[in-house]
Amino acid sequence: MLFAFFVADFYTRCNIGVMNAPHNIYIHVPFCISKCNYCAFFSRACANPDWESYAKKIITEIKHWHDILGRISVPTIFFGGGTPSLLPTKIFAKIINATYENFNLLDNAEITIEANPKTLDMVRLREFCDAGANRVSIGVQSFDDEKLLFLGRAHNADDARRLIDIAMSQIKNVSADFIYGLPSDTVDDVIKTCDAINRIGLSHCSMYELTIEPNTPFGKMNLQMPSNETMAEMYMAIAKTLKLNRYEVSNYAVDGAECRHNQNVWDGAPYIGIGDGAAGRILIDNMWYEQMGDGKLFESLSDSARATERVITGMRTRRGVFVDDAIKKIIDIEFAKSNPDVIEFRPDNRIRATDAGILILDNLIERLVK
Ligand code: SF4
User: Distance, CA 83 to ligand 1 centroid (Å)?
Assistant: First the structure.
C-alpha cells in the first residue's frame, strides 16, 4: 500500500512539461561466451541468448524513462557487460534508434561498446560504427597466453592484438582493459605490459588490480596473491611507465581521450541504468533517485547520501570533487586543509587526492566524510 502511494506520488511529481536535466545512459548486456575465473559481474555464459526479447526489454525500459523524464538530452551511452560486442549489429542499431526516437541524443554523443576480442572482426566492428558506436573498449587483460588461460579468458593474446589493430584503423577512441597483480605477476611483468601499450600507441587504457571475489572460481582457490607492498609498487610502476595520464585510480588517457561517460558519472551527473542488473541515479525536480534493476524500482536519495557518493567517486579522479554547499556539509574541511600531503585544494574550487593520497584512498575518504 505504502509502495503504491509512493509510486503514484512519484509519477505526479514527474512533470514532463518541465525539461529535466541531461542523463547519460548505461545499457547492460549480461551475456558472455564463457565465465572468467575472477568475474563477479552480473553476467552469465550464454553466447546465443534470445536477442529479440532482450532488445524488446531494453526498448521498453527506454520508453519507460521517456515517459518519466521526457525528451531529455543524452550526452553519452555506454554498452557494458557482460559482453555487449556479442550483440547482433542489427539489434544494436535497433536499440540506438530507440534512443534517438525517445531522447535528444546529442550530435557529439559518445557511444561506447565494450568488446571481447573473440567476438569482433573488421566487418562487425564497421557495422557497430555505422549504427553509431564511436568508442570501443576492448577487454584484453593480458598479452600473455598463460595468464589469459589462468584468468579463464575466451581469447588469446593474438586475438586481442588483432582486434586492437582493427579498432585503431577504424575508430579514433579505442581503449583496452588490463588486469595486473596475478599471483605469478612481478613488477617487471607489469612494466612489460605498459611498454607494449606505449608501443601500440593506445590513447586510453584501464589497469585493474586483480581482486578476489568470494563467489568466483578464484574465490575458492586459496591463491597466493602478491603482497600489498608489491601491489603498490606495481601501481606506481604503471603511472611511471605508461605514456598516458592517470585521470582516475585505474584509468589512463592522453588529454582529450578520457571516457566521457565515466567522467560524467564520477563527477555526479545523472545516469539511467538499463537492462538486467543495471543501476542508475536519476534527477527529477532537484530530487535524486536511486534506480535499480528493470527501471521500475526507485528510492529517493537524501542530499547527504548523494553528496557522499560524489566524494567517493570524485576523489578517485584527477579532476576531483567540486566543493559546493552539499559537499561542504558532509566533509571535514579542517581535516582536508590540515593534510596537504594527501588532499589538494584546486583553484577551481575542487579537492582531489594527491599521488600519496591515491595510495590510501579508502582510508582517506573514510576520514574525510564526517
Ligand atoms: S567477459 Fe567480462 S563480464 Fe564476461 S565473464 Fe569475463 S570478466 Fe565477466
Answer: 7
Q: 156-194: per-residue pLDDT in tens?
A: 999 999 999 999 999 999 999 999 999 999 999 999 999
If you average pLDDT over every residue of the chain, what do you get?
A: 94
Atom of ligand 1 nearest to the CA of 35: 5
Over residues 2-48, the pLDDT tens digits come to 333 344 444 444 544 568 999 999 999 999 999 999 999 999 999 78
User: What pLDDT digit, counting tens, does each position of 113-156 carry?
Assistant: 999 999 999 999 999 999 999 999 999 999 999 999 999 999 99
Domain ranges, ordered by start, for the chain? 2-264, 319-370
Query: Which of 31, 37, 38, 39 has the most ligand 1 atoms within 8 A of CB, as the residue to mutate?
Result: 39
Q: Which of 3.20.20.70, 3.60.15.10, 3.40.30.10, 3.60.10.10 is the CATH number of 2-264?
A: 3.20.20.70
For residues 352 and 115, what is the distance between their CA atoms, to the nearest angstrom? 31
Distance between Cα 247 and ligand 1 center (Å): 24
- C-beta separation of 273 from 28 below 8 A: yes
Asked if pLDDT for residue 347 goes beyond 80, the answer is: yes
Q: Report the sign of the C-alpha dihedral through residues 318, 319, 323, 326, in that order.
A: negative
Q: Which amino acid is at 323?
A: V
Phi-psi category of 90—alpha, beta or left, where left has phi over 0 and alpha has psi -120 to 50? alpha
363 Cβ contact list (under 8 Å, min separation 6): none
Are 60 and 95 within 8 A, CB to CB? no
Which residue, by CA, sits nearest to atom 7 of ligand 1? 39
Whole-number pLDDT of residue 15: 45
pTM of the model: 0.94
Alpha-carbon distance values, 123 to 166, 253, 364 (Å): 10, 27, 47
* CB-based burial label for 344 (10 Å; 0-12, 13-18, 19+): middle
With a Cβ cut-off of 6 Å, ligand 1 is lined by 32, 35-36, 39, 41, 43, 81-83, 116, 139
Residue nearest to atom 2 of ligand 1 (CA): 82
